[in-house]
Amino acid sequence: MTVEFAARLPLARNELDRDAEHRSTPDLERVLRDDPTTRFLPVHGGAMLRNADGTLRFVAADQVPDDATLLYLGRAVSDAPDAPAGTRFVAALVDDAAAARIEPDSDVWENLRMFGTELSARDQGLAVEAVAMANWHAVHGFSPRTGSPTESTVGGWVRRDPEGHQHFPRTDAAIIVGITDGQDRILLGSNAAWDANRYSLLAGFVEPGESLEDAVRREVFEEAGVTIEEPEYLGSQPWPFPASLMVGFRARAVDGDPSTARPDGVEIIDVRWFSRDEIREQAGDTVLLPGRTSIARVIIEEWYGGPLDLP
């Protein structure tokens, strides 16, 4: 992975010290609430608030309900107008009532998918971490081992049940791959869950006991019937919708007739080879491509040779 490619990955930028050693600080929640310099980031169902200048909007400790789940995100590593280096950041998971008190206009609460590319590196790191952890807490209120209710501990990074079992956040690895043929066309597929004219790279989750490279080969053949040569790693970025790490590759289809590409008919309903001219002429019109926050868009633009003037 080149530094230039990594810098273009929308949700992989970060300027934050996660400060893991302080997550186990005794009575950490009180320490954070009592420190007037702590910045609290309200998170409501994965949505956040922004200021007029586009920066994340923080609130004071007294605006955060006592029963809100707090997630210690870490410390700033550089000075910014709203927070000097060393400032501690906390995500506060708020319910409907608390969110309405903080900001009653529901339209102001925004999803990270929509504005992720507009944030600074620090705010991107905070937002991605907060959303990923919020999603994990939302589905781990009960122990998968005992069925007992769990409680948040260690700065929000562990959930513990009454029997003492500890449960830690997990990330699902998924591969995504830009495949080209002998004419340097790129293979894109349309998912059954999307609009019929929306296309993206082929992708899929890594199965247990499988390497990333084997997952690339398997997913491409399963979804499009295409056999590829040795895949090459490009880069990765978190995709907390709800809990994935997208690992990007590029690969070449083996010699043969590329017209044999065919969709699996279940998950993928169409696959097409696109030339650069076809992308330039059709993208945004008859063909919809992935949004700017996705690694898929970056890989497509890497193949295309520059940015596409699309949302």
From TrEMBL:
Pfam families: NUDIX (PF00293), NUDIX-like (PF09296). The keyword Transmembrane helix does not apply. Its EC number is 3.6.1.22. Keywords: Hydrolase, Magnesium, Metal-binding, NAD. Residues 169-296 form the Nudix hydrolase domain. The keyword DNA-binding does not apply. Its cofactor is Mg(2+); Zn(2+). InterPro entries: NAD-cap_RNA_hydrolase_NudC (IPR050241), NADH_PPase-like_N (IPR015375), NudC-like_C (IPR049734), Nudix_hydrolase (IPR020476), NUDIX_hydrolase-like_dom_sf (IPR015797), NUDIX_hydrolase_CS (IPR020084), NUDIX_hydrolase_dom (IPR000086). It catalyses: a 5'-end NAD(+)-phospho-ribonucleoside in mRNA + H2O = a 5'-end phospho-adenosine-phospho-ribonucleoside in mRNA + beta-nicotinamide D-ribonucleotide + 2 H(+). Belongs to the Nudix hydrolase family. NudC subfamily. This is NAD(+) diphosphatase. The lineage of its organism: Bacteria, Bacillati, Actinomycetota, Actinomycetes, Micrococcales. The gene is nudC.
